[in-house]
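dude i think i finally got it to work??
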Amino acid sequence: MKIVIAPDSFKGNLSAGEVCAAIEEGIHRANPAVETIKLPLADGGEGTARALTLAAGGRFVEVPVTGPLGDPVTAVFGLIHDGKTVVLDLASASGIELIPRSALNPMKASTWGTGELIAAALNTGARELIIGIGGSATNDGGMGMLAALGFRLLDGEGRLTAPGAENLMRGMKFDASAADPRLKKTAITVACDVTNPLLGPQGASAVFGPQKGADEEMVKALDQGLMRLGQCWINAGLADDLEHPGDGAAGGTGAALRICLGARIESGAMLVMKHAGFFEKIRGADLMITGEGMTDSQTAAGKLCSVAARESRRAGVPAALLSGGLEGDLSALFEIFDYAVSISAGETSLEGMIAQSRRDLVFAAENLIRALRLGAKTWNVLNREGPTGSAASSSGKKTLDDLRGMTLSAAKEYIAGFISTIKLNEKKIAGLEEEADRWQRRVELAQSRGETALAWEAERKVREAENRASLIRVEAADLREQAGDMVRRLPGLSAGERRVDPDLLLQEIIISAGLNPGDGETSGLERQFAALEKEAAAGQALASLKEKLARGSGGSAEVQAASCDPAADGGAVSDCYDINWRKRLVHWSDGASEVSPLRGSL
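look at this
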């Protein structure tokens, strides 16, 4: 079994890498043989630069900058692609995690430090920036960042306004004349995890302001300040409107980056997943496990876990969510995930959940794998096929202790049920592997014909067959282990005989466990591929015919087909082939001719 572990961080608690390690530990406690691939991810918030830098094999650079409330902090950016690209997080310089909860104040918080971080990135010579803008403590429309880069917001008397959202209402004119000239030669991509606009009930202030310490009246003031700043951008000829998705990210910093720095806004989750190799590593996986600190209504709006689940399921791989906590409409989670659970194990306070989060995460991962094994057992018990007998049908329920009191023949019959089921499962696995191969060939066929939709459906069939085979492998491994233990404890056997392998026991216990699957009805998808395969086979046959005719005539097939003239051969018998009508024309020396359908190979 192959499992891809692709979580976000548990904000303020565990990094994405630490989450990966805890989930992997839990998986291997349940089954050490499981292959795990760890992909610590992010969606544009805290940890984005780290995830991208590690994925690209880059290096980190520390920079002293001004924190959101004016205190000095040490921010970090990553250098990747041989120093050509810098990856940085706004949260590293202007993040909410840099301020005690009691001190949060979005009216005073500024993105000035983020501007300093961008300037330091430009000093490296890099001319491509990837900026994650989640996790901010600010609502200043990115004006602090812009001011640190040379842009100016002036009041009605032409004086420079001070950083902070509280001063945006004073702004009357936006001046870009003194902006850092290197910015015009720099390509900027913004990794953003939200689609909110700048203003209004779904805008930066209304949706994210309360998380940053804003009350109802403050939210109104913040929204008015962003409206004034946006109007200044429009008056300066930099923007036509303020309605773009993602403009509201990081308290309006998304809009500042797009409008003033010409940045391109992309899904942060997709950007990180692409650079981390998610789409290559998910292929052939049996399960994808993701996780985050809190799952709520915002998760479905572009957050990492929902995007990872969506892309995983598109690849035919089930998606499981291990979350620190769940809020909102829980039933809606199953529209996104195949499995979703809070890892909390009885803690009633946030502090308690944080303190025990790693322990609970390990347990939740182990529990998930145990549930998969239980599900595989139950499914196979309920869906056994073939003459496996009553012993096999109950094999998932009995234990080694049930051998007590059995006669040797009864014990052998009981164990035979296990072994018969193992052999049955092996046949099922072989059949599913053949099915997966068949659908994979169909994927390639559909792709070669430009049938994208059909190729996608065939790819889904490949994953379905592979996933079913994986579940059966888990069941078979468990049954084989149980059967081996039982053989060693068969009553009445000598010590040497008790070491016999279950497969060798088949020489003594003859069981019939054949499969008799019905053909079933041909599905619409099967019919579409049957037609496509028939068309492909006809094309291959025609191409083969042309090639053989060309070889036989020393020229092209069309030349031979066009030169069917008995007189040319002095009235002798000749065989000619009409390529267009796919018929065989036989001309006789007396002038008669015979036309017959073209069948078989030449």
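The radius of gyration is 34 Å.
im so relieved honestly
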